[in-house]
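Notes continue from the previous slide.

Worked example: a multi-chain complex. Inputs as given:
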Amino acid sequence: MGIVFEFPDYYLFPNGLWVTFQLSVLALAGSLVVGTVVALFRVSPVTPLRWVGGGFVEAFRNTPLLVQLFFFFFGLPLLGIRLSAEPLESNFRAAVIGLALYHAAYVAEIVRGGLLAVDKGQIEAARSLGLSYVGMIRYIQLPQAFRAVVPPLGNIAIALVKNTSLAATIGVSELLQGGELIESRTFRSVEAFGAVAILYLFLTIPMGLGVNWLERRMLVVR
Amino acid sequence: MRSIHRVIAIGLAAAFVAAACGGASTASPSPAPATATAKPAPSFEATSFMATIKSKGKIRVGTREDNVPFGLKNPSTGKLEGFDIDIARELAKGIFGDKANIDENIEFIPVVSATRIPTLQDNKADFVIATFTINDDRKKQIDFSDVYFRTGQRILVKKDNTTITKAEDMAGKTICAATGSTSVDNIKKIAPTAKILALDSYPPCLLALQQGSADAVSTDETILFGLAKQDPNTKLVGPYFSTEPYGIGIKQNANNDRAGFVTFMNAQLAAMIADGRWAKSYKQWISPVSFDEKKNPDGK
């Protein structure tokens, strides 16, 4: 038989790749925003905010992503919450929300680490110059924190791209599901899943290179 | 989720086993049905495949062991039972004569979907009876008997659903089926505008139906029977919109090494339908899930 990369329904690959790309971009943007906010909560001087931030991180970091996706897709409608009137849209939204919140928990911990790593002298200098707490965070602490956490955030971004494959279990027609469909029609599993793996590399390798570039660019000391 | 499915599956299997035991105990007190044409042991032409089997003293039967209610291994007795198994035993009796301990003359070979054709082609089994849908691609590789069981694709909806009553009504609706199954292709063929929610297996599809993410679940009727049994708030609607005729698979009679076997099988199946043995097995295995009775594969 040999290995033949020739599929009758090859269009499922570019279609799946596009959905995976959309999932990755939306979930990554969501996780960076939510993660940063949660990190600020966790270092906030207001105690209840720290509790909220801590609770979020523990809840989303300590349960499996698959369980969270099942909750957002199967569970929310049982509680009367519909993400969309259109079921095939609601599973995509459930996947974006699940992926964003799960990875936001990791982003929050990384950003929090970055915030705490900023030299105390910087903070004291900012306050003595008359910057408000918000101004100090905005102009002094966050910019320096992000510079330090680019490499670990890159790891999270790449993990997120790979984790989008779990969306196949709630019926999102992304890359892995495209591969499954082609496998079931051709009985050529090596080729179908081989192609899927290579297409994931098309997303993750440029992403890794982008992170490296960003890291060099943001380096303060050259 | 998976483990929940497994628990449900084990529960269902146990229920089937319990039903099976009950059926057997009520049937045993009645005297053995003495058919008028009962012969001690049939004889065959020396050149026929049946004569070869008879002289060997054993027939090798490929069956599935995990396919309720067609073929499964009873966990308490270790014996195979089910609709397919009944038919296999009756076919063996057609060669070795009507005896109680017919299993002595049968060697059951376990198969799964993907190994059914190779098992025949490599001559590891004399015939395969395992919910084997007859289709043109397969006919190029093996021979089939006549249809001994007919099922087809139907639709499962919530009990209060009045908008979907037949296959064409699936147009524009969200229908759940297993990823990459022929069920998906059948839905697209009859209702091209139907939106397919493709999940890994059918228990998640039932969940999607229950909480409103899918308007219907559609696949082989036998699978839907199982789902409807789990959730009494669902019902099956519409006639078959695909046909899944099951046949008995036999190696092709290439160099006359299967002489007369298909003809013999077909005659045996016709006899089983005519004298009610087929209907009895249907009642024992299929009726508990289908809630109907049939006297032959085509219905009443």
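Summary box: Chain B touches chain A at residues 1, 174, 176, 179-181, 195, 197-200, 204, 207-208, 211-214 (CB under 8 Å). The radius of gyration of chain B is 20 Å.
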